[in-house]
Write a structure and sequence with these properties.
heterodimer; A: Glutaredoxin; 7-stranded mixed beta sheet; two-stranded antiparallel sheet; 16% strand; B: alpha+beta; Immunoglobulin-like; 4 domains; 5-stranded antiparallel beta sheet; 5-stranded mixed beta sheet; 19 helices; 43% helix; Thioredoxin-like_sf (chain A)
């Protein structure tokens, strides 16, 4: 009985995520439309015909700190935005939960973190975008091609240690996927287990 | 990083106080972080010849947790980077975890203290073994805090391993929870196959065990969420949700636990769905279920009166024990022969590709009509409206033909009363090889025949029954009423099959038969002949009408929340994540009608269903319907009732018991929060 109840509980809890198809490699990316910290609206349709990277962020998550404290994430943002790839960093923490930022704070934090994304943080406090995408963790990464299809969903790299010292020897999935996809080649590993902290919906 | 160094020095200070190993006074024997303290689980000395299990003991604050090797939807397993001198260290052994639902995710880990173990084997001739370990862990409640630490240990090698009692106890406790080889397990993995795009199904067989807790080893392939567990004939089928977009490898691993112990199935090949659930090893169990189901059939309202009267016949006779035994055997032969014939017919039709199932004979209006007439005559006879003519009486009562006929009759009247235990056995019979299927039919027959036969062969038992007397007449008259009720119900079935014309036709024939009986009793030979001719003519006319009309549309379901069966509609609802409840039913199935009346058609259920936007489907199998038969076969059943529940967002059903209670419907909607 307990198993049944837990199973039901699990299925009920995940209904919002299941009711819509979550972002799945090989399928069309879910639509979104959210404002960034400066109040500008961003929608999936705005990026039609262009490459787009989505990154889920929570400033207090040790795994986010691993990649920002070491400068790893910012250097990726810099490298790929220079190649005309759009990069949106999304905060789905609900108000009152860890990592939530209001517009003003978000602008400040963007500066403090040296964010090199295409826009200051995309703010998704109601979690709609995060749930539609099935964003589970921070950092959870998605790559969307100019046709609007997801080509990669998962972790940033293959090392789920929180220690920044492991970054140089880690295999960066996002780099591998973007480099392959931009060169017109298939992505070898289009889906990986996203590690990190749970998104605080 | 400065924090780490501070921690390091704090550790140095701390360990210089606890001088368990005097020669290692300055080495850290423990590591600390927020909400976590890690210590060695090690003996005082290592045995020279053999392997000793050591470990790291994680003392974790209440409500915080650390992780298993597959951390689940978020989180991270601890890391142990062990350097060892003069010995070999084995891989980390992970005690089986617990599912930890954290908001929208499920993690796999441990709440409270836990130990991660590993084996150490000293090299031959070594005097001392040194261990250095770099540790990293993640401890979470909702928020997570990573921790780092370094620990060392030096152990002398002695002939025997020497433990401090309390450390040994902890090691042994957790060692018991480390997965063992699957061969030693009561659970057997039968197959693993993809079920649609989103699910991987694992079938596990076991007897006499509770449902296992199964944890996937590969978190990038399967989500950690509790799999949907469906009890199958021989064990369970577990439906794991796949990570979207991940291609299937050729195999994957699981840990199977019974909540006390666990076993490891590291490489289960991913293949195709098991062929017809192949429950060969449990054929004995199925036979037993069939037998018990058959025994219970004796008590069903359509069977009990017939058998009771037969029994009175036996008690009345002054027949010798031998004669009675013969009666019992003949009756049994009648039951078994009829079951064999029906089973053979079913198998032959199945071999011919027809999609049919148990109770199929009641889908024919002619069979239903014949039963109506039969029950009507029996009921009238029980009521004493007429005496069975002495020829009829001998046939039904005392002659050998009578006992055989009673057996045949018992099977026919029993068919609609699919009782408890029978569903599973009949469902298996539908997919089993012919020989096993036939064995199940015979088993059912044996069960139906057994109580009567037992009474026949055992005078002691028969003597225990109350002495014959006038009360038997009263009881017989009383038994007429369940038979009248059966007639009413069968008339309704006929109405469902044929529409209103069925009612009228059958009712008219019953009226005509009653008139003929009265006519026949007037005593004049000519009248008797006339009565017989009229009665036969009526019945023949009715059967011809039924043959012509059997294609007529039945009146469809009444206007309520229940929708008629429509596969496209169901698939659409499932794709949209809507909850779906399917009631596989038939008018001739008593259990179905009882459930419908007491549970499904109540205001309570209707309200719950509309409140939760449940698509309620009534799959009416009263008439032969290939698509419903097909759907039943996919559920591993070939009889009704079957109740399939698809929770919102699920595409695999949970089957409810055949005897429903309102509580079970309520429970579908009120999951209680698991102890977090």
């Amino acid at each position: 009985m307990n198993i049944l109840k837990q199973g039901l509980l699990a299925s009920i809890l995940t209904v919002p995520a299941l009711a819509f198809a979550v972002a799945t490699p090989g399928e069309a990316a879910p639509d979104f439309s959210e404002v960034d910290a400066t109040g500008e609206m961003h929608a999936l349709s705005d990026y039609q015909g262009e490459w787009l990277v989505l990154e889920w962020f929570n400033k207090d998550c040790p795994y986010v700190r691993k990649h920002y404290g070491s400068g790893n994430m910012q250097s990726l943002q810099e490298k790929y935005t220079a190649q005309d790839v759009n990069w949106l960093t999304v905060i789905s923490s609900a108000e009152g939960k860890q990592g939530y930022l209001g517009p003003v704070e978000a602008q400040n934090q963007a500066k403090i973190h040296n964010l090199n994304a295409s826009a200051p943080f995309l703010l998704d406090p109601d979690g709609n975008m995060g749930r539609d995408y099935g964003a589970k963790t921070t950092p959870h990464m998605f790559i969307i091609n100019p046709e609007g299809d997801v080509v990669y969903a998962g972790a940033i790299d293959d090392n789920d240690s929180a220690n920044p010292a492991v970054i140089p020897e880690s295999n960066n999935y996002v780099v591998a996927a973007l480099d392959a996809a931009l060169a017109g080649k298939p992505v070898a590993e289009p889906s990986t287990r996203a590690y990190g902290c749970s998104v605080k919906y | 990083m400065p924090k780490l160094f501070a921690l390091f020095f704090a550790l140095l200070l701390a360990t210089s106080v606890c001088v368990a190993q005097p020669n290692l006074g300055e080495d850290p024997l423990s590591a600390h972080g927020d909400h976590v303290k890690v210590t060695w689980l090690a003996p005082q000395s290592l045995g020279a010849d053999g392997t000793t299990t050591l470990g790291f003991y994680f003392e974790v604050d209440p409500h915080w947790h650390v992780y298993w090797r597959n951390a689940g939807d978020s989180g991270a397993a601890p890391r142990f980077d062990i350097t060892i001198d003069d010995a070999k260290a084995g891989p980390i052994q992970w005690p089986f975890p617990k599912r930890l639902p954290i908001e929208h995710l499920t993690n796999l880990g441990y709440e409270g203290n836990t130990a991660y173990l590993f084996e150490v084997t000293p090299q031959v001739g070594s005097q001392q073994v040194t261990l250095d370990v770099n540790l990293e862990w993640l401890v979470c409640k909702v928020d997570c805090i990573p921790g780092f630490g370094q620990m060392s240990l030096s152990l002398p090698v002695t002939p025997e391993t020497q433990w401090r009692e309390e450390d040994k106890t902890i090691v042994d406790t957790f060692k018991q929870r480390v997965p063992q080889r699957l061969e030693t397990s009561p659970y057997q993995v039968t197959s693993l196959w993809p079920l649609g795009e989103q699910t991987l199904a694992l079938s596990i067989s076991a007897t006499g065990q509770q449902a296992p807790d199964v944890f996937p080893l590969d978190g990038s392939l399967l989500t950690a969420r509790e799999p949907k567990t469906i009890a199958a004939e021989t064990g369970w089928e577990l439906h794991f949700k796949r990570q979207p977009g991940v291609d299937l490898p050729s195999d994957t691993g699981f840990v199977i636990s019974n909540h006390d112990q666990a076993w490891s199935a590291p490489k289960v090949p991913i293949g195709s769905a098991p062929v017809a659930a192949a429950p060969s090893q449990s054929i004995v169990l199925l036979l037993l279920a069939a037998f018990v189901g058959g025994i219970i059939l004796n008590l069903m309202p359509c069977v009990f009166p017939v058998l009771s009267i037969k029994l009175f016949g036996l008690m009345n006779t002054t027949a010798s024990g031998g004669a009675r035994t013969r009666e019992g055997l003949l009756y049994s032969a009648g039951v078994l022969a009829t079951f064999a014939a029906l089973g053979g017919l079913l198998l032959a039709l199945r071999a011919g590709g027809a999609a049919i199932g148990w109770g199929f004979q009641l889908q024919s209006p002619i069979v239903v009509f014949a039963l109506i007439v039969l029950f009507w005559l029996m009921a009238l006879a029980f009521s004493g409206v007429f005496e069975f003519g002495h020829k009829l009486m001998t046939l039904a009562g005392h002659s050998s033909g009578g006992s055989f006929a009673t057996g045949v009759l018992a099977v026919f009247v029993a068919a609609p009363c699919t009782g408890p235990f029978m569903g599973a056995a009949l469902g298996a019979a539908a997919v089993l090889p012919a020989a096993s299927a036939m064995a199940i039919f015979i088993g059912l027959g044996a069960g139906l025949a057994a109580p009567f036969l037992l009474l026949c062969v055992s005078p002691q038992l028969l003597n225990r029954l109350p002495k014959p007397g006038p009360w038997m007449d009263t009881l017989r008259q009383f038994f007429a009423f369940p038979l009248y009720a059966t007639v009413l119900w069968l008339m309704w079935v006929l109405g469902r099959i044929m529409g209103d014309a069925g009612w009228l036709l059958a009712g008219s024939v019953l009226l005509a038969l009653s008139f003929c009986l009265w006519l026949g009793q007037l005593g004049r030979k000519g009248l008797r002949l006339l009565a017989s001719i009229v009665a036969i003519a009526c019945v023949v006319f009715a059967v011809m009408q039924l043959r012509d009309n059997s294609g007529a549309e039945a009146s469809q379901t009444s206007a309520n929340v229940w929708q008629p069966y429509d596969q496209a509609r169901i698939e659409q609802a499932l794709a949209q994540g809507q909850a779906v409840f399917i009631d596989y039913t038939a008018a001739w199935c008593i259990t179905c009608q009882v459930n419908k009346k007491l549970v499904l058609n109540t205001e309570h259920t209707t309200e719950l269903f509309s409140q939760h936007d449940v698509l309620a489907i009534r799959a009416d199998w009263t008439r032969h319907d290939a698509s419903i038969t097909e759907a039943l076969a996919q559920l591993g059943r070939n009889s009704v009732p079957v109740y399939a529940w698809y929770a919102a967002g699920e595409t695999t059903p949970k089957l409810l018991p055949q005897l429903l209670q309102e509580r079970m419907i309520t429970e579908l909607f009120e999951p209680t929060i698991g102890d977090q």
